[in-house]
Amino acid sequence: MGRNINGEFEFDVIRHKDTAAAWSQELKVIFVLRGNGWLHTEEGDRTYAISREDIFVINSFQMHSVVLEENGLAISLSLSPSFLAAASPETEDRNVNCKSFLHEEEKQQLFDIIRKDLALAFRAWYKKESELSIHLRSRVMALADDLYRYFSENGENTGRESGRERLRAAVEYIHRNYREGITLADLASQTYLSTSYISRSFQKYMGVSFTGYLTQVRLFHAALLLQGEGTVTEIAYESGFSSASALIDAFKQYRGITPGQYRRNLGKRPVMDNAEEMKTAEGFSMAFVSLMKYADKAEEAAEPVVTGVCEISVNTGIVKRQLRHTWKTMINAGYARDLLNASMQNQIMEIQKSIGFRYIRCKGVVDDDMMLYSRDVNGNSSFNYVYLDQALDFILSAGAKPMLELGHMPSAMAQKKVQFFKRPSFISPPAELEQWRLLIESLMEHLIGRYGMEELKKWLFVPWISMDMHLFGLFVKEDFGEIYSVTYQEIKKACREFVICGPGTTLLSLEAAEWFCDLCRERDCIPDIFTVRSYAAIDPEEEKSGLKLVENNESFYMAVDGDEDCLMHLRRKVKDFLEAEGEGFCGLPVLMDEWSNNIWQRDLCNDTCYKSAYLFKSIMENHDSYYGLGYFSISDQLDEIAPAAEAFHGGFGLFTQNGIAKSAYRAMQLLSRAGDKLIAKGSGYFITASEDEIQIFLHNYCHYDMLYRYRNTTNLTKTRRYKVFQEKAPRSFHIQLEGVRPGRHEVRRYGIGRKGGSAYDAWIDMGAPEPMTKEEEKTLMRLSSPVYRREEAEAEGLLKIKASLMPHEVCLITISI
Fold this sequence. Notes:
By secondary structure, this protein is of the alpha/beta class. The protein has an 8-stranded parallel β-sheet with strand order 13-14-17-18-19-20-23-24.
């Protein structure tokens, strides 16, 4: 649902087997986004074929049904009578006669005006073009104005006269009880109106007799049931008819065909042209393109730019607190086998050289591609640690410590051969738990023998995969509990000082998290570090507002959270949860072992400078609030889904698969320059200091718009990726730094945005070559560096710094002191 605050108007979607209400007070404007279907109205008992881009209006109190074929999708805007009457009382005695499908293509100009109005109103809503509701109301009002200007007609029985209003209770009673044998006397007792008045009023105001109206309501519901498998007799009973013969007679009288013919007609699906294929190769829906192209045509002229100003006054001599920079505690390198890839190793060495993470986390330690566990033809187990040793040796050579997730499950040991991702990862409990215990026992013996007990005390161990995977039916909680507790005990048996992390939950299921804590207390396996993760994902059925538009992606039926501060709010939720759990859990360090802006591995926005603003905002606002923030992941080389041929295909990584640094990596480079003293922080800014320098971090973050959060997009292509965000103006920062020594200071500015610091945008300026030559790749690597400018500024009691950021831009300003 997309109702505005006062219930004045509402956007909704209509899908196959959904239907617009048979009767309602609101005036409805309906636009067919894709597919074909049928509209049946009470006026003349007509059934119309409708198809893509048809637009039509259902008047208040007009009985109707809209049925779409399987691929069909429509959007509706409902306008309440009070909203229309407040704007213009004259609308109360007028109907709107707007049906684009009755007119030829050359006569669609007036309908295009309504399509444009609807598109602009919808965009104003889902993009939140203004914080004030005035703008959205004005868009809806413009639509209503054009509807009544071009399509209104006078009529005695319009549906809003006071007489028809008095029938409202009678009509509602019919729609609630149409299955029963309703009589005029029943209506009279329910509405306190006389039977003669009801009889006259139905004919006068509804244009049909009481019995005719009741029959049409029953026919409407029968028509819906005919889309299913029920017999005509069953459907007659369910929809209120006394017999199958009565249903057949009513169908012939009002629709001119039998129920059987109606059902056969539903099966005749029109052949669709290529324009009806509304999915991108990456799985995003393009359904709204058919509507939003009218908004694009209307907005060719640029709108005036309004810049917000943030005024900041800071005393540099006052330190808020010391910074630990825990966001650099850990980063994800993907799967263990990937660490043997030369390109991946180069990317890790680059990131360690410029940033330096304490831990590098890898998953899939016992996956088949690591060849750690196997069985011969006689069923004898064997262990091989060659690949694992190579991966661990590399992590140590990069100046980091390993964080090892001991999963998923070797296929030779798996109870079920369930391969959730494209890569050879089997998510299953073991067929024999004892075999898993022996595997962990052997692994710990090998690691201690090769690296030593003292070294392993500095590592992090994760007993198994995320507990949340049980939500997808891959195993039950009890399976997780057995594997986790057995693994925990084997690790701690080797050394009680080894550090264990778990359970890798999103807290989407509090019941499961509570169960985990109870298990840990019962079996003495409480983790040393409590791990959570966030991909800013929500169950689309649970969001309190917004259209339910999500499309299935590679693995998960999830939408992006509309909460821009979900990382911050998750930390508070985890803190409250652990405090409530009490003994053993209250006070545990909380590590975010995986996080990113969404769960889509083919989100084209991942390559853009939007991602640098996302990282600036997330790390600045959650600085030191977690034990660590493990961004996922370093590289686009992640084979959970089929690899993409294109360099800029929307992967999670800080680097493309061919090693080009994205704007996200450049953002992390800048953030790593923060000093160890926090001077000030607020919306869009974070100011730190070191011994000889002040660092000012700024961002102008823009969140996804409503449609894109639900995996729907309009006009997003591989070369146009910035039209799926909420509308936001450029932002100016005026900063006054007090306590700075008098004299001249060197000021250095580093910027990331569409004009510099973004390899993707440089690639667009290059002409978007694909595939790229080696020369083009080298050029992009050079062009991906942040924009740099050096200047001098005079301080006389205070130092004034100004900066202006376009949407998605970030900036680091350093000042020598």
